[in-house]
Amino acid sequence: MQTGGSTVVLGGGGVAGTAWMVGLAAGLRHKGIDLAQADLIVGTSAGSLAGTLITSGIDLDDLAEAPSPGTPPSVSYELNPELLADMSRLRSDTSLDPAESRRRIGELATSVTSGAEDHLAWMRWMIGTPDWPASRFWVTALDIDSGERVTWDRASGVALLTAVASSCCVPTLIPPVLINNRLYMDGGASSPTNADLAAGARRLVVIDPIAHVYPRGPLEREIAAVGADRLTTIGPNAAAQTAYGTNMLDNTSWQPAYRAGVDQVGEVVDELRATLG
Predict the structure, then answer these.
(1) DSSP classification of residue 249
(2) Please, are residues 41 and 71 in contact by the beta-carbon 8 Å criterion?
(3) Cα-atom radius of gyration of the chain, to the nearest Å?
(4) How confident is the model over 156-172, as pLDDT tens digits?
(5) Is 177 helix (H, G, I), strand (E, B) or coil?
(6) Which residues neighbour 200 within 8 Å (Cβ) at sequence distance 6 or greater?
(7) Which of 15, 27, 74, 216 has the fewest CB atoms in 10 Å of its CB?
């Protein structure tokens, strides 16, 4: 739980969503607002990638073309429409206890058994092998067996690269990540934002790359649980949604999505300044 202060929540959204958030953060720095200075940053899935880059101390302007130099690893994800449909039904089944729903999604996630090394190589290309930042940074994931949400941080004893990899392994698409003899899957299987982890924050910023995809109700309930005095929520504008393209996991979406984030800064900077102070 956050006790007072400010929290920035970074949600899931694939390569495109990561790039959009990094571009937004880069543009905000030019306006005198550094998201890395928040008292707490919560990253889920793409948000864990963006949070790592934002808190790394690197010049975000250098990421306009790509998150890392060189050619990205060749990664091929095979979508299984039946498994994806099953996962969607489980997420929307209100008759199930949320933990039970997540456990069943975890069972689906274990059906993917290949691609772990490719996933980790892609993670390295995205963020390198960084140490945990000095900033207070939480990365979300889900325990496959228990369905419980976990938050990795500097004190968890888990390498940042491994923590981020666990937060980004989309169920039914990327195999779960093994940490301390337990399997973990994408933190977004619990919530696209996990904004309730900011409970106790007085100033809250939620940056949700897929705000246009899911109903607003669950996020509003998470925000209500936080009880912040000042709040700003940011989703991609129409131009950013177009820049995402048709496949948010496609590396070629990085440049247009990053630029869309930079371009959107003018729409949000005044509200963000009022929220963060």
Answers:
(1) T
(2) no
(3) 17
(4) 999 999 999 999 998 88
(5) strand
(6) 1, 2, 3, 4, 226, 227
(7) 74
